Amino acid sequence: MIPDFQKITLPLLEFLSDGKEHTSKEINDYITKKFHLTEEEKNELLPSGAQTVINNRISWARTYLKKAGLIKSPKRGTFVITEDGKKVLEKKPIKIDRYFLRTIPKFIEWRNNHLPKARKKDFTKTDLDFTYNKTPQELMDYAYQEFIDKLSFELLDKVKNSSPQFFENLVIDLLVKLGYGGSKKEAGKAVGKSGDGGIDGIINEDKLGLDKIYIQAKKWENTIPLKEIRDFAGALLAQKAKKGVFITTSKFPQTAYEYVKNIEHNIILIDGKKLTELMIENDVGLSVQTIYKIKKIDSDYFEENE
Questions:
Q1: CA distances (Å), origin 194, targets 46, 84, 146, 168
Q2: In a domain, 215, yes or no
Q3: pTM of model > 0.70
Q4: β-pairing, 266-270 with 243-248?
Q5: For residue 127, what pLDDT band results from cuts at 50, 70 and 90?
């Protein structure tokens, strides 16, 4: 029988307990052998046909372990246990499921930052309680949101592990998709070429070039210091510019948001979470895998034909 993703989580962490980097294929091979899956079970597909059931469940198990800070991905397609992960194994848990993960501060923090407001009040309830009180439509909406959260988490991880040149191209693609910079060719000439006192690039606000937007892009891991925002504002002042966008893969402190509210310049702050939201909304670095259509009866059709 194909195990659910919660039954996979502990064996997966134990497999990585040797401290070595392991590829996705190595993990998948181990799990399929661990649970003695038949060839038929290994090849069983999701209803959409987009992926095998077991690979999908292993992917979810990896994601939850990463959210909890128990494993990390040092480079694309590889995974390794963290010090926190080793400490969890030292406690010899019987299983690592959603309830266990909800005792881990990093996982709780992630869930609190990403859960829809409507579900935060249900966070401490059991999954059975939660599903029992919800309609199928509500459950689908929550499931979709959880999928988007997973996608956002993995997407940001890939962006953080990308090269500076890739990040620069990503910023260009996103800004063009948002309607700025004219064409990609025109935006590419501007972004990453300025380097003038805290400014990484200058693009047109529209295709006619009626106004300019100044860009600062930081592929950082740690929280952006307020000083960086002040320097960017100072650079805008020196250029007599009024509009700027500061994009980062990390976070901004609350003081940064308060600062930009109280200055003359219009500076938009885009942190890692917002960056991935915009990428998902505008299909930057993404392709459509499956489309589910929710249909309802057309009452007008039946009334017209009665």
A1: 48, 42, 39, 13
A2: yes
A3: no
A4: parallel
A5: low
